[in-house]
Amino acid sequence: MRSKGLTSVQLAKLAGVSSATISRAFTADSLIKPETRARILALADEHGYRPNAMARSLNMSQSRLVALVVNTVANPAEGEGLDQLVHRLQARERMPLLLCCANHEDRNQLMRIASAYRVDHVVLYSDAVSIDDAADIFRSATLIVASSEPLQGRAVSDVRLDASAATRQVVDRLVDMGRRHFVYLSGRSSSHIDKQRMSWFSDALEAQGLAFDVVEHGDYSYESGYKEAVLLLRRARPDVIVCANDLMAIGVKDAASLLNIRVPEDLAIVGHDGVALANWEAHSITTIMPLEGMVSTALAEIIDRDPTEPPMQRVVDCVVRWGRSTPELPR
Amino acid sequence: MRSKGLTSVQLAKLAGVSSATISRAFTADSLIKPETRARILALADEHGYRPNAMARSLNMSQSRLVALVVNTVANPAEGEGLDQLVHRLQARERMPLLLCCANHEDRNQLMRIASAYRVDHVVLYSDAVSIDDAADIFRSATLIVASSEPLQGRAVSDVRLDASAATRQVVDRLVDMGRRHFVYLSGRSSSHIDKQRMSWFSDALEAQGLAFDVVEHGDYSYESGYKEAVLLLRRARPDVIVCANDLMAIGVKDAASLLNIRVPEDLAIVGHDGVALANWEAHSITTIMPLEGMVSTALAEIIDRDPTEPPMQRVVDCVVRWGRSTPELPR
DNA sequence: GGGTAAAATGTAAGCGTGTACATTTGTGTC
DNA sequence: GACACAAATGTACACGCTTACATTTTACCC
To answer: Does position B330 have pLDDT exceeding 90, yes or no?
Structure first.
């Protein structure tokens, strides 16, 4: 086995140069003779040398670490979004530090631990933590909010969704086809994105002169969609159930099938997020989702910006991915 | 806004002590008067001070970082397993660095970047990277393999599954109920866990004096399960399809439903992994899975060990989670 | 109270880099 | 060949912390 953890000084000895030259060989556009650099890089490669990122971060005060604050990666919606973002970061030689908040009693403590690593950026993907707490804890990092919490004048970059047009498109089509009894199944009514989705839905219906009922007790899980739908469908007969996310929408669809309610003939179902499995043959849920890859692109762009520039707000438009959980347009 | 990034020396001035005392206040069981520590911790809290993990890591040569090498977090099987592991790490004040290999052309380059952060441990959750490459790149870290690749005498800790008993249990029941025509749908035949699953299956069938067919073209995705099942079921009528993972099993079930093949009456379907959605009402796939939480527990235990101890091998037994994709036992 | 040992704190030297500054080497000109 | 000037390299310190060692304070006992 080769030597463990060569340092720049040791490599310098081997190369017959000073450690400063080693450093220069690894720094782009620095003053060094091309042949020297080539020789050093070859030697480094041979010995498996890499500049110690800890030491480098320490005196450059920039770590190239990005803290990703999510609820859980077990959830397809978060997992799929996260995956794209991670790929974009990796392509830029940045490293994601993962913080999973769900099931963790003290989220602030978690953030405090991560902040000790002096991350350059923090992406708040989870609405389970407060922006103010995060800003307070990650003092010197650039905070980027992706959880749709209102900024209220805070000097923070954010990426938010706009599903108003897509929602109107769905509602209009359903109304056109004669649907009148709409229900919204909430995921967590305290969640900001949930509030927004409901409000877009509410606006779209209002424009059609219609009202709707709300079922509050969902929790974003398949099981809750299923359970709430069974309860609801036993006492009422809505035309349309719009769910705060796709997982609940799938639960609703299964509940309908249990109760012999035909989808989409008797009941149309709409989800949110556009997770891969909503598109599976057995589910085929019509869903309102951000344009493919747009969120992670926007986040990556913000991360690439000069940190001294003022924060930036980006809006990503949503589209409809039609499935068989809503009726087809007549030809 | 408060000062950005206080250092230990600055805090020392504020507290009227030396920086060494600050350090001791943050180090468990070190020689310091309890009142002094309390006073310093209170002051630190007030000013939002935390020891810089970079500096600390640099001279302790231990970072409390753990590199998690996975294919993708978009996949439920990896996402769910990862989530548990992340929680266990966080509970121990360790930070996960996430490396997603899928879609990344040069995995070794990715690992090299991560290795610059001097992670203490590397968990290989992905079989897309070579153990030898990982060991070579993460020279001074403790490598832990969770991808079922054979160790071949390498001095590496690993956690592997044993599904032999569970597989036998499934096969025996199906044979008892008269099933004779078994097919195995592979995910990626080069994958080690896939080979193992097929071999357990093969052994269980052999014990019953039966043979089976193999469909090689799966790729672990729902779509491939669906597609391969359609092709297969159009030309043959197996009793049982055992899939390399749950996603393909769900695809197979949907394909069966498309072709009006009744599950489980005409066709029994078995998956692997035990992902949450396999248990959903609409799917209800019988699956062979590790005992809940055992893998992440084993990994966390290995991570907690003294790094000077020799590597350790752990085997996690699998169980059967029965669903409605296999016939019920007659009463 | 003086002496001793234990407890608490201070001092200073690293940990492995990057970089400002000093120094050496190379190039071209008269 | 001496000179000026640019290119390339070396020197030394800082980044923020831990820790071995030195020093001071406290506690205790005769």
So the answer is: no
B209 CA to chain A: closest CA distance, Å? 36
Q: Which CATH number does the domain housing residue A32 bear?
A: 1.10.260.40
Nearest residue in A to B136, CA atom: A48
Query: Could you tell me if B148 and B131 lie in one domain?
Result: yes
- Of B236, B1, B196, the residue nearest A155 (C-alpha): B1
Closest to B168 (Cα-Cα) out of B278, B270, B283: B270
Indicate yes or no: CB of B74 within 8 angstroms of CB of A74.
Answer: no
What is the distance between the alpha carbons of residues B330 and A98, in angstroms, rounded to a whole number? 48
Q: Does one domain contain both A270 and A178?
A: yes
Q: Give the three-state DSSP class for A184.
A: strand
Confidence band of A3 (pLDDT split at 50, 70, 90): very low
Q: Average pLDDT of chain B? A: 94
- Asked if the structure places residue A280 within a domain, the reply is yes
Q: What are the helix (H) ranges across chain B?
A: 8-15, 19-25, 34-47, 53-60, 76-91, 107-115, 131-137, 164-176, 192-207, 222-235, 246-258, 294-304
Instruction: Name the residue closest to the C1' of D25 by its CA.
Output: B33
Counting the structural domains of chain B, the total is 3
Q: Which domain holds residue B17?
A: 8-51
The answer to whether residue A103 sits within a structural domain is yes
Residue A234 and residue A252: Cα distance in Å, rounded? 13
